[in-house]
Structures are given as C-alpha cells and as structure tokens.
Amino acid sequence: MSTDTAAAHASASERHVVTRPRAARRTPQWRRALSFGNIGAVYVWLLIILAFTVWVPGTFATRTTFEQILNNNAVTGLIALSVVIPLAARVFDLSVAFTMTLSGVTVAHFAAQTGVGVAPAVGIALGVALLIGVLNGFVVVGLGVDSFIATLATGSLIKAFITMVTNDQSITGVQLLRPPFSSIAQTDVAGLTLPVLYLLVTAGAIWFVLERTATGRRLYATGFNPDAARLQRVATDRLRFLSLITSALLAGVAGIVFTSAIGSGSPTAGDPYLLAAYAAAFLGATQLRGGRFNAWGTVIAVLLLGTGTTGLSLASTPQWSTSVFTGIVLIVALAVTSGRVRVPQRMRRRAVATD
Amino acid sequence: MLGEMEVAIAAPETQPAGPPPVLRLERLSKTFGGTRALRDVTLEIAPGEVHALVGQNGCGKSTLIKTLAGYHAPDPGALAWLDGERFELSGVGDRHDRLRFVHQDLGLVTELSAVDNLALSRGYARTRLGSIDWAQQERTARALIGRFGMDIDVHRPLKEATPVECTVVAIAAALEGWTGGGVLVLDEPTAVLPHTEVERLLEIVREVRRGGTSVLYVSHRMNEIFDIADRVTVLRGGRVIGTRDVAHLTPQALATMMVGEDVDLSVRREAPSTARPAALEARDVRAGVLRGVSLAVGEGEVLGIAGLPGSGRETLPYALAGAWPGPVSGAMRLPAQSDAWTDLAEDDTARIPLVPANRTTEGVIGAFSVKENLTLPMLGRLRGRAALARRREDDLVDGWIDRLGIRAAGSDAPITTLSGGNQQKVVMARCLALGSQVLALCEPTAGVDVGTRMQLYDLVAEQARAGVGVLVSSSDEGDLIGMCTRVLVLRHGVVATELTGDQITEPNLLHAMEGS
C-alpha cells in the first residue's frame, strides 16, 4: 500500500514545497503504517477490548465472545462493504438495506415454497438484486437524479414491493432450516461461520479492485473530481452505473446469507443495517488510506463497532447504550480526521493528512 | 545559500524615509514540518503606496499572505506593527479594521447577487419590523460599487457577472466600513482576468490608493507591477531578496531578482523553415459560440488561438479534444493516424490530449498524488494481467518528474503540496506522456511564475521541434508571443484575423481581438 513521505504530510495543508526533503528525514515505512493517524481505530479497538476485559471479567475476554463478535458482524460487514465501491465514486446507494431484504425473502420464497431447489433460488435472488442495481443505475446515471435521493426513492419502492408480496409476514419453511440451505451461513470452520470467510474474501476482492487496478483508480478519480476525470477519458457514467450494480449484488449476497443464518425470510431483515453500513464505511474511510473509502478500513470499523456493542450488552448496560456508543465513535473519528479538532502535537505529527 | 547570492541591481535599496510605515513585519519565519517556507522576512508598507509582492511559485508569497491573515501561525519571534501599534500575528480579529484581504478565490458566493454578497460581510440593513430593508441594501451596494465606476446589476447572481465585476464586488466587500488608511491585500487579483479587463482593475486599485489606503499587491504579471506599483518586494526561497522603487527598475532586472539568474524575456520562436504536412485539420467546427472554424496545424507548428472572452477562444480546444459538454458539429482528421475525416457530432473518440484551462477544477484531482494524476489517462496501457504494473507506473512517473524538473517530495506526494507551476508541469507531463502528435493547451501559464513559464515555453518548443503540432489557446498575449509562430484571432465565433511571425505583437493582437 503506497504511503506518502513524512515531509509531504507535514506540509499537506500548504501549497508550496520550498525545499526538497532529504531522504534521511523519511520516517520508516513501518512506523507510518502503524501510526495513530493511519490505524487509529485499531488502537481504539484494543483499548475497548482492554476496557471490557476489566469491566466484565470472566465473560468478555473469552474465545466464545470473539467468535461471537466475528460471526454476528459478518453480515454487517458485507453490507458495509457493499457501499464502499459506490462511495469511492461518490455515489450513495441508500437502497442496499431494502435490496438485502428483497433478496432474502426472494431466496426464502423460492427455496421454501417452490420446488426449484437451493441453487436456482440463490440464482433468482441474485438476479433480482442485479435488476435493482440496473434500476438504480438507470435512475442515477440515465435520468441524472442525485444518487442520495434517487436510491432513497428506489429503496422506498422496493420496501413497498416487499410489503405487497410478503404481507409483512416472515417466509418460513423446513427447507430453510436444514442443509443445504442452512449450511450457506451456518457451517462452522474452527469456531467461525462461513459468513466470516465471505466477508474476508469480499474485502480482499474490493481491496484489489480499488487499490491495484485501473478501474479502482478511475473510480476514485470519478469520486474526487468527475470533471477532471472525464477530461482524462475516464468513463465516469459507466463507472457510476457499475458501482451501483456491485452494491446491489453484494447487498443481495448479504440478504441470502442473513436468511440462511436465521432460517426464515424476514420482511424487515435489512432495516437495522443501513445506518450500521454507512457508519462503518465512513469510519473506515478515516483508516489506512486517509480519506478514501476502502475495504480493510471498513472491516476494521465493523469490528471496532461490533466489539463495543457486544461488550456493552455483556456488561448489561441499557439497550440504548450501544447506539450511544456508535454515535460517539463516529463523531469523534470523523472530527479528529477533519482537522478542525486539535490532537496532541505528538500524535498529530504522524497523522495522515486527509483533506 | 540563496541569501548569500549577490544580485547585481542598479537600483538603490529604498530607505524607510518620510512617514512611519502603516504595516511593518520583522523576523517573520514560518516552518512546515522540515520545510522553511519563510525565513526572517521583513516588510514595510508606507502609507498610501501600492506595494507589489512578487516571486516565483513556491517562494513563500502565499504563506506570507496567509500568515498575515492569521490563517497560519508564524514561528515564535515574529513582530508586527500596524500604524506603529504592535499586534499578534497568531491572533485573529484584532487587525481587521485596518488590514483587509481579497484572496485569490475572491471568497464570493456566486449563486448570490452582489447585494447579498456585500451583506454577507457587513450584515443586512433591517427595517423597523426586523425584515431586510432591500431598498436600503440596494442603495448601499450601488454606492459601494459605484465608487469604482462600475455599473452592474446588483440583483443578478454573480455567476452571470464578468470576472472583473466579481473582483470589484470582492474589493467593495473588503473595504466595507473603511475610513481610509490601513492596508488592503490583493492576492493575485488579475490571475483570472482576461487581459483586456486588467486595466479596469488597475484603475480600481488606483482609486483605492487615492482614498489613502495602502495596497499590498501580489502578482505574477510583470507589466502590471510597472503600471501600478510604487515599490516592489521580491521573495525567493522564503527570503526577502530586496525592496526597490519601481521607478528605478527594469523588467529584466526584476525578473533576475525573482529567478536568481539572468532571464531573457525577449524570446521569439523560429517558424518551421519549410511548410510541413498537417498534423491536425478541422473543418467548420461549431460548438457553443463557435460558428464554423476551420484550421490546420502543421507538424512542428505552434498555432495560437486568441480572442476576447466569449469569442470562442476558450471553446475551440475543448471541441477538438472531444471534451466540450454541449453539442458539437464539424469534422477533423489527424493525417498521421488516418486520412479519413471524423464527424465531431457523432464520434468523439479521435481525442487529442488537452491541458484544460482551469487547473484546480479541471486539471488535477486534488486528493490524488502526483503519480495518480499523471497516469490517469494512460492506465489502460499500464495494465498487467489484471492489476496495474506498479513498477512500470513508478518508472514512468519518475522519468517525467526528472525530465520536466517537477519539484515534488516524490511521486506519492499529494498533488496539492506542489506549487501551481509544478502542478501545471504534471498536467503537461500527462499530455506529453500520451505520445500524441497533436496537443491542445488552454491557458498553459495561468498562475505560473516567470521561471516556470520560460521552462514551459521551452518544453513546447522542444515538442514542436520533434514534429508535434501544438494548439495554444490563451488570454495571455505573452504566451502567444512567446510560443506561437502563427495566431488565429477569433471574434464572435469565427476566425477574424490571422497573424504570423513578426506580426504577432501585443498591439496587433489587441487590435485584432477588439476588431478596432
């Protein structure tokens, strides 16, 4: 992962580099990689683990708790990753939670109430998600509606459609409770369930696309300055369209995994995930790549937020405390990286510039 | 190192004689990380003078202005006086009655009218009921702007106003509630102005001076300084090289002070000795205000496009580069690639590399590094099997950084840490790296200092010698005189005049552009 030189950081807010920094002044790469500015959330995460270990001795610092945190947050992670690629291109997809729900009830319906079998049911659910992606792309790119409001609108339509066909009833059936369908999410590998693996594979794939390929560079260019990108022959419209397809497909995957995990197709499955996804993606953007939406930063953010909420529930705090935790972490993280808030000088010198 | 270099200048150092200075700075230094942007700067502004501040990009001008404005805190030890009274540079607020700023971006809200913009700084006039007293507000705005002999519609959004009108509104807003005296700081007020409107702005600066206010005038443009300034302070490498009376200086001597070595300002390009085949031909191009322009750029020719704002001068390169957002018609061909004519209305794939007119909004991507900016249009070529070939990308970028002498802390440095001139070099390198036989440059030297400007001229000349056909559209006559061997002057969307060789002079260009 490319990082910038220390001198460049120090003068990032300044437009003029007056003297060429000496090579000897460079901070070693590992120190930059481990700096607070780069992976502050990891340090905060460790601090939280330490705090809960002291606060809830016996129950928190156990293998079971950690497996639980990973397993419980895999779906959150998937849905958070689904919005990373659109956000890199400065496109909001607020319909992902509803796409997730729709894909979940679709797979439940076809797997439980028709005789088509599991694999075709999964295929149909992904096909439906793909259609949503095309619809979003058409409204945002084709009709030129601002993505924030456009996907809010398509989300509303999807929600209406879900209510219409499910009558707000969960779709249940024995086929959903036993293999092969249940094994999509309920297979254990060394204490961890398969969704954790899906999360890591997806994060790896998104990292590769954004960091290592021409497409990723062009996605970021589209997000940062679409006019300049277009003048450099970047097909910004096509990329924005494709980014909405990827978010819909990933939300579709998350929906299938969620349905398999709980064993029924819930018409409200996605509702709690929208805010969590954007919280993690924005918190993740403050990590590793200083201001760029990225995959591993998002995963770190999901784990940080997940650990906090799990710890709080183990500590038997009131239910609302987890929302308080998420809200405070988000505001603090984004405020620190906005540059308005003064961090102690010693931390600041190593902080990555994020403007 | 730089400070030890002796500069032989005939003009004597001016003495702070007569009335005490209205603004005085002493021992002002500013360090960013390991970079010393300002070193021990001393500056004195006399009452009622226009004091120019000049220097190449990266010399510390912007840092000095920002420190003065309280945006940056100076290193400890700096001293500052206003009208003989000490004030703290790191504090904000206490200086604003006698020291005001018009920054380069003007700080206007272009969606709002002049009335609203003026009210943003001075507050709205209220009626007794507490609602906005629009009649009063309008009278105030007209009075403020009328002082500068400007008659503008104060209710129109500023985005419909001309650049000079916007500058006037910004100056009026800065001078609000002013009783004379003090210092008005103008940071590159003419950077975005077309040449023909500069004189109007200079008249406005003179009007400010007549009101008894001193002006600290930051500019890149040599002739403005000789037109308007009483004294000039030159910065180089963060140090003050000297303060001189303008009356005792020549442009040559001032350029030498800025660059630190002798500069020949009287460049003139040799035309290609024989007629060469065309590198680019275009027929009947129509886009925006363009009403049918045909042209041919020969191999090794640098063809200038001149014209007033709105003449189509700004539109033509975009239309040819396939980058004009509106409908385009006409045909073009690049004989080196194919003899077939391309219909511009249907096919915009025959694109030629373009240096866009506005570096910050269209040229560079601020959040990207030097490398990411440079390789953006050629990522397809740098692809390995699936991922980018990172070694090849690094080598390519390092090669261009070397070749163009781009001053950056490395290829991964954020582009915004580079000075304007160096950013422009990156934009230029990006075009050259595409290896096209035709280039289109818009305002190639906007906001670029004298030294870099000469380097860019040389670079274009070098490309021309290698057989590349270059199209240069510029509002700066210096560009056209310094680079071009032939100039097409546009008026009302058509080619009005063609100037070649020795005909390309400033009077001829202005005459042709205005059609007088």
Short descriptors:
heterodimer, A: two-stranded antiparallel sheet, 18 helices, 69% helix, globular, B: 516 residues, six-stranded mixed sheet, 29% helix
Quote the distance from N terminus to C terminus of chain A: 19 Å
Oligomeric state of the chains? heterodimer
The number of strands of chain B is 20
User: What is the spatial order of strands in the main beta sheet of chain B?
Assistant: 6-7-8-3-9-10
Question: What is the number of helical segments of chain A per DSSP (H or I, 4+ residues)?
Answer: 18
Which value, in Å, is the CA radius of gyration of chain A? 22 Å
Shape of chain B: globular
* DSSP strand content of chain A: under 5%
Name given to the CATH homologous superfamily of the largest domain in chain B: P-loop containing nucleotide triphosphate hydrolases
Helix/strand/pairing class of chain A, anyone? Answer: mainly alpha
**Mean pLDDT across all residues of chain B, rounded?**
81
Q: What's the structural domain tally of chain B?
A: 4
Radius of gyration of chain B: 24 Å
Helix share, percent of chain A: 55-70%
Ranges of chain B where pLDDT stays below 50 over 5 or more residues in a row are 1-13
Count of spatially separate domains of chain A: 2
Question: What is the terminal separation of chain B in angstroms?
Answer: 51 Å
